[in-house]
Design goal:
Elements (H helix, E strand, L loop, with lengths): L2 E5 L8 H11 L3 E7 L9 H14 L4 E6 L3 H8 L6 E5 L6 H13 L3 E6 L17 E5 L13 H15 L5 E5 L7 H6 L4 E4 L1 H4 L4 H8 L1
Parallel strand pairs: 1-2, 1-8, 2-3, 3-4, 4-5, 5-6, 6-7, 7-8
Length: 218
């Protein structure tokens, strides 16, 4: 069974605490924290996500799955270290070279957090193969990052299959997470591609019954 990481991007501020509590009761495995800076992607969610993450830490022991869609990778890692997230994912495209990628991976590990790399739909998995033995997880974006409610790009499913095959060949136990356009219509497609964790936002948050929506995805 796959795990579900619920994106809290569309949670309304006035209902935030109750929504986070209800998501835990409903059986989400992670809270997915989409941090955007208005530069690497158009939208800016930095303050809202930080506020939401602090609320979650006060009411829940479920892990934070932090996804950095930012230019200032180091600054945002530093901001979230005190909150003790389970995973911090940085974008390959946000780093100036491979050395910087390795530096960030090691820095995340030194702070007892699991490191992950995300790639946009147009980025080949060949770009990140050298980092895989160092990573807990790869997050494959199945839509262009920065906007909620987009439709899953079918080509990204092929890329996910390619990554799964490579990990099996190399006997690496790196997890695969997908993010974007995941719902009850697309979940079977990404499950068959070999994912471990599915990020879902609108499909859960806009559902009348969180538990039913999460169970349906699992």
């Amino acid at each position: 069974m796959i795990e579900v990481s619920t994106s809290i991007l569309t949670v309304e501020k006035e209902n935030a605490t109750k929504t986070f509590y209800d998501l835990e009761v409903a059986g989400t495995d992670y809270y997915h924290i989409d941090i955007m800076d208005g530069k690497f992607v158009e939208k800016n969610t930095e303050e809202m996500m930080y506020e939401y993450s602090n609320i979650i830490k006060q009411i829940s022991n479920l892990p934070l799955d932090v996804h950095l869609m930012v230019e200032d990778v180091k600054g945002n890692i530093d901001r979230y270290i005190p909150l003790g997230p389970s995973i911090i994912t940085l974008h390959y495209e946000a780093c100036k070279d491979d050395e910087e990628v390795i530096k960030f991976i090691n820095y995340i590990k030194e702070n007892n957090i699991k490191p992950a790399i995300s790639i946009k739909p147009g980025t080949s998995i060949d770009k990140i193969k050298k980092f895989l033995p160092m990573l807990h997880m790869v997050l494959i974006m199945t839509v262009e990052p920065g906007k909620g409610g987009q439709k899953l790009i079918p080509e990204t499913v092929e890329k996910t299959k390619e990554l799964k095959k490579y990990l099996e060949e190399k006997k690496l136990d790196t997890y695969i997470e997908v993010d974007g356009g995941v719902n009850k219509e697309t979940i079977d497609m990404v499950k068959e591609a070999g994912i471990d964790i599915a990020v879902a936002g609108s499909a859960i948050i806009s559902a009348e019954d969180f538990k039913e929506a999460i169970n349906e995805l699992k």
